[in-house]
Amino acid sequence: MHTPLISASQPANATGSVNAPTILITGATGTIGTELSRILSERAVPFRVMVRSPKDVRRFENLTGADVVIGDFNDVDTITPALAGIERAFLLTNSSEQAEQQQLDFVAEAQRSGVRHLVKLSQFAASLDSPVRFLRYHAAVEQAIEASGLDFTFLRPNLFMQGLLGFRASIVEQGFFFAAIGDARISTIDIRDIAAVAAEALTGSGHERNIYTLTGPEALTHTEMANTLSAALERPVSFVDVPATAMRDALLNAGFPAWQADGLLEDYAHYSRNEASGITSDVETVTGKPPRTFATFAHEYAPAFLGSVNIH
């Protein structure tokens, strides 16, 4: 049975009236989706978000212009009503072994539903022949979108600065974080800049059939990141380079599924070869603003790394 639209801040309007949302955001409860929703709300752009659980509806209660539909990527019957009346959609799923198939199913349903433009969150260096499973699956979905005939914009961001929040406990309690990356440089990006580019692609023109490689303005080693974080926190933070096996054990102990842990190790092997050190101007080209520096991120997220607040 199809799940009806639920309005978080206004009457759900899927009947074709002038205020009916024509933009759908998937992955809306994650860091990028949350920021993207905030941007669209501030711009007074009506939009719809797809969430998995009724409890997630509450997250959008105070967000002007948001309609919410409950949907599950594993159940096409719930995706169909989410796409009703939608012209542009932002495609983002959780990282899992099912992600490729979930996204392929969504693309097929978007095509059937009359969606005109898909904005897909992909990944830096996505390629069908990559040794990194994440980069292969993103490339496979990109290929399917191109073959579908839909207009598209692919966003290929580098490593998220906010990924460092995954080490929040060790930074707060012990003053260090770790990875298997050596002294390789990586042009990390703030998720707020990714969301800003997504907002432009969803609401503006001229982004059709474009691929944007999204990076920060500098390529830093993890040791340099630790030094920058130390300055922002006014307390020592160090980076510890560890063998891949130790990183895998830590990920598994933290609850990561083996498939995802091994994929992250492939990611970090890719980073360690300096294959993610390139810098582009795509953020500024699209948004008109330069991407945030790591120092800006460290300063603004300092309360989280000091343990005084919990920022997601």
TrEMBL record:
It comes from the Bacteria. It holds the Pfam family NmrA. Residues 22-266 form the NmrA-like domain. InterPro entries: Ergot_Alk_Oxidoreductase, NAD(P)-bd_dom_sf, NmrA-like. This is SDR family oxidoreductase. It comes from Spirosoma agri.
